[in-house]
Amino acid sequence: MATAAVLVWLFLRALLDGDYDRPTHAVGAVLTTAVVVPLVVVARRVLDRRPWAGLGLPSLRAGWRHLLLGMACWLVPAAAGFALCLGFGWVEISVRTSVGDVLRVAALLVVLVFLKEALPEELIFRGYLQHNLATRLPAWQALVGQAVLFTSFGFLVGAARSVDRLALFFVFALQLGAFRAATGDIWAGIGLHVAFQTVAQLFGDVGAVFDVVGGDVLGVVAMGAIPFSVSWLVLRHRYRDRLNWHAPTPDPVH
Q1: 163-183 and 60-87 helices, crossing angle to 10°
Q2: What is the mean pLDDT of residues 133-142?
Q3: Residue 231 forms part of a structural domain
Q4: For residues 89 and 91, what is the distance between their CA atoms, to the nearest angstrom?
Q5: Which parts of the chain span the membrane according to its record (predicted)?
Q6: How far, in Å, CA of 252 to CA of 106, rounded?
Q7: Which of 17, 240, 241, 252 keeps 20 to 30 A from 233, CA to CA?
Q8: What is the residue-averaged pLDDT of the chain?
C-alpha cells in the first residue's frame, strides 16, 4: 500500500508538473482522492477481506467532534505562536491583497488540502497502514512504523529531502498517529492535517497572499514547536485512560 501511494503521487506529479497554478492544484487534488480512496477500499475489502470499520473513517456525522478537536489542537496554539513571533519582532507579515481575497484563498485551500493531502494521506498511512501494523504489533511500534513509512513517502515524492523536512514529516506523522490511536478514527488527524497544511500554504508561495519576513522562525515556532507540543499535551490529558501503547489493537469483524 505504501508503494502504491508513492506511485500514485509520482504519477500525478509527473502528469501535472510545471509552474504552480490553482486550476492544476485543483485537478491534482480531485484526482488524488479519486484514485487513492478506491485503492484503499480495494486493499481493505478485497486483499485483506476485512470490514471498512477498521480504516477508522466513520461518517462525518459520527466524526465531526474529532475533526474539530484536531483542528483546534493545532490552530489555537498556532495562533498564540503567531502572536508571539509578531510581538517579539521575529517575524513580519504584510498582506499583498484584500482581506476578501485572503478569505477566498483560505477557503479554497481548505478544500484542496482536504482532497490532496489530508484525506488520502490519513486514509493510507493512519487508516490502513497504522491499523494493520497495530493489529500485529504493540501500538507504539505501529505508531513509529507508520511514521517511518510516511517520512519515507515524503522523501520519495520530493516533499522531504532536507534534514529539517524529514524531521518535520516524522514528528507530524507521530502526532497524527497518536490521535489515531487515542480516538480510534482518523478524523482528528484529518482536522489537524487540514489546519496545518492550509496555514502553511496560505502563508507560503502557494497562497501568495502574504509577504513573510522570518518565515523559517514562523515555521519552527508558530507552526511547529508550539502547536505540536500543545497537541501532545491535550492528547495525553484527554485520552490518558484510553492510551495503551503496549497492546495490539483488535481488528473489527463487522
Answers
A1: 140
A2: 94
A3: yes
A4: 5
A5: 26-47, 67-90, 140-160, 166-183, 216-235
A6: 38
A7: 252
A8: 91
Q: Is the pTM of this model over 0.90?
A: yes
Residue 48, Cα to own-chain centre: how many angstroms? Answer: 25
Helix (H) or strand (E) holding 212: strand 210-213
Torsion 98-104-110-112 (CA) sign: negative
- Structural domain contains residue 248: no
Is the pLDDT at 11 greater than 80? The verdict is no
Per-residue pLDDT of 41-83, as tens digits, reads 888 988 888 888 899 999 999 999 999 999 999 999 999 999 9
8 Å CB contact between 176 and 143? no
Longest dimension (CA), the chain: 56
Adjacent-strand bridge partners of 95: 210
d(CA 19, CA 62): 40
Is the distance from CB of 88 to CB of 221 less than 8 angstroms?
Answer: no
Judge whether residue 89 has pLDDT over 90: yes
Cα–Cα distance, 91 to 88 (Å, whole number): 8
Q: Is residue 251 part of a domain?
A: no
Q: How many domains does the chain have?
A: 1
Decide: 206 and 20 in contact? Cβ < 8 Å: yes
Q: What is the pLDDT of residues 151-178, one digit of tens each?
A: 999 998 888 889 999 999 999 999 999 9
**Contact status, residue 105 vs residue 209, Cβ threshold 8 Å:** yes
Range of the structural domain that residue 136 is part of:
2-238
